[in-house]
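Suppose you are handed a protein chain with no further information: no name, no annotation, nothing but its sequence. What can you learn? This example shows the usual starting point.
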Amino acid sequence: KIFAVDSKGKARALWDSRDKHVVSLTRDDANHLLAGTSEEAILYRVSTDGKGEAVQDFEAEEVRAIARSGDAITIAVNDFDKTSTPLPFGPPAAKGTKIVLSSGGPPSSAGALPRPGARKSRAALYRLERDGRLEQIFAIPDGYFTSLVVDDKTGDVYASTGTKGRVYRV
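A reasonable first move is to predict its three-dimensional structure. Written in structure tokens, the prediction is:
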């Protein structure tokens, strides 16, 4: 659901996607928002009076991030493997980080270890033009996007991943 909060701090339900989660939200114009959902991966255009319409239905699991620049919308879409089983949870993590120094070579890093519950995934960036044209502009075969921003001056897209902490410039 999307909630609206008035100037006095009172919240009211504005719109219900009927999907599991609304995971991304940005302003489209003065009277509309763009909302991306998780589980069904649908991009919606929602008016400030609470009416929503599907703009694009992706064959994926989530529309994780949305950025508007000029007449185009850039969308980060993730698709997680539904057949892989999450890794089992181990013992509770210790508080703090244990740093291990070795006598030679680079230091050990826990960053390369899979996280509990991690699943295989793939992701793509799409550009949606005002006239409805949709184009995939970039993809990663193993990983997922967490956020994106578009440089209004250059048109460059910066997209971050949650897999290896990378930031891509497209």
